[in-house]
Structure formats: structure tokens, C-alpha cells
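Exercise 7.
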Amino acid sequence: MLDIPVAYGPRQPLPLRTPYVVGESTGSFVNRYAHSNGMELHEFLDRVGQGKASEDPARVGKYPQVTEMYVNAAGLRYLAVLTDQPAAFLQRMLPSLAEQHLLPGTDEAVWKWPWEPSEGHLVPCCTLCAQDRGVREPAWLMSADSWRVCPRHHSWTDDSRSDDPAFVDLAELPETVWAHRQRQRLRRWFGPAGEELFADAFQVAVHWWTTMPHATRWVQRARSAGLEVRAMRAAPLVLYPEAASLALAMLRFEHDGKRDPAGRARWLASVQHLMEGWEVDFGVGKQPLLAWLERHSHAAAPAPAHSPRRCRLRLAMGHDRIAARTGSLDRRSCLPWQLGMAAAEL
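Solution. The predicted structure, written as C-alpha cells, is:
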């Protein structure tokens, strides 16, 4: 449907290409495409269809770093013509062009820039990754979470749009890079269940950080990163290693399958030992662990024997009733609290 010629709109591509970045926001990409062809963003938008934007070109030029651009099916066809690429290729490169994100629609090409992305966060692309792709200006990625780690170049970026610092060099925080790789392994080995276990562990660590923010290791990591100790943007960065280690402990609990009171007590004691090594108060921090055990106290139905290895781990029924299969870590967890809550709300 998307490759059928249309009666209106652009009939030939713009003369100059721009490099693609997998996972980039549509707004970031079209902004760069406009600039590579000697246009400002507001001029390019006139070629993509109808939409409402500020009358101030300078303000329009700031859209890609604060929100996302969405198009309908006809607008996607226009973009395919302008970039000289199949619509399916654009949808693979730019997640906000996926079918579920297309605007409803009429045969008239339409674009919109809502106040904020309908799903996900705009996070700056790692500068070195962008340069490796031949990108010479800032690019923004669509991220399920409000932050990203680049394990290749050991950097961390988030959606705070702060220049203090704009990104964190993780050279002094190798444990955070290790933690990210552990998360990737869980996802690779166990698919959605691996990511959801990490989400649960991360939410427990969020609870710890909220109620015990001055744990020595978290303070030291925040300072090494050049971030304020109690700044909310510091939390994901400083908690990552403990969340990854706790996720591995949760994985062992799920694999052992010993969910009776004695099995749960043994697991809790093993986590207490970890927390003592981290100098995190178990007496204060056991509440979210008990909440997790409650939701994971009844095993899920086993996966069929012929299932791929990455699909054989089934999490407990109490988890599956609550956790989402996609989205940010707080959505993929069975635990209810969110980063930014006050300790009294947890």
C-alpha cells in the first residue's frame, strides 16, 4: 500500500543524502536531511504535507530536541520519495514510523509535533557513534527509557537536555558498563523475560536509592560522573551495577523454582549478603524484596519443550498479570513505584 504512486506530493528525491542512524527519532532525521540539502526544518516540512507548527522558524528548529514528529501513511510515502528510500526501510530505521505510530488517516499527507513524544524519550545519540556513521550534527534517538549507555564508547546520555554535563564519560565507572552488558545478555539469552527481570531489579534499586540516597557507593559514582548526588538523573547511572547483580540473583530464584517459605528465606538471605557487601541497609531495603517475592511466589506454566531457548524462561503468574511486555523499565516491572516518588509514597 505504501509504495503505490500518489497523485500529489513530491515526485523526485532531494539531491543530497544524509547518513542514517538506527533508532533515530523521525524529527531528528528530517532535521538533518533538511540541513544536508541547504534547507531549514520549516522549509522541509512544507514538502512532507500539512501540519501545524510555530510561525517562528527558530522555534521550529528546536523541535527535534524536545519532541517527536509523527506522520500518516501518506506522509510516510512523501518521506520515502524525498529520501529515495522504500517506506519499509525508513520504518526499520526510524521507530516512530512503525505502523502503530502512524497518524490516522485520509489521503492527504499530514504531520504533527505533539508537546511530547507519544511513547518513549528523546535521548542524544553518542557523539562518537554518530561520527562513525558520518553524522556531524547532534542527533536524537527514541529510547524506551530516559537514558542510554553506549558500551562501545563508554558514555551515558539522558533526556535532561542539561549541559552540566551533557554526557557522562564512563571511563571512571567500568562497573556501569559491565552492568549494561549484563542487561544485554539477559535480553539476548531470555528475551522479554530477561528484560523484565532486569526491570524488577532496577525498580528495587530505585526504592533503595529513594530511601537510602547517601549510600557510599552511589555518592561516589555520582561525583565521579559530575552529577549532583541527589539529582534524579543520577539515579539510573549510579544504581545500574546493583540492579544488574540483583537481576542475576532473581534469575537464580526463578531457575531454582523453590518458592516455598524455606526457599524464599534462603534467597532473601543470599540477597542480604549482597547488600551487606554494598553497604546498603537490609533492614530498610528488604521491603521491596518482599514485595517482589510476593508477586513471584507461584510459578508460571512451563514453556513447551520445543520453544527456543530465549523463550523458555517463564516468570511467575503474579508478575505476568502486572508487567507490560514493552516500554520503559517501570512499565516492564511488576513493582509499582517510579523514579521520582518521595520516600513516603513508596
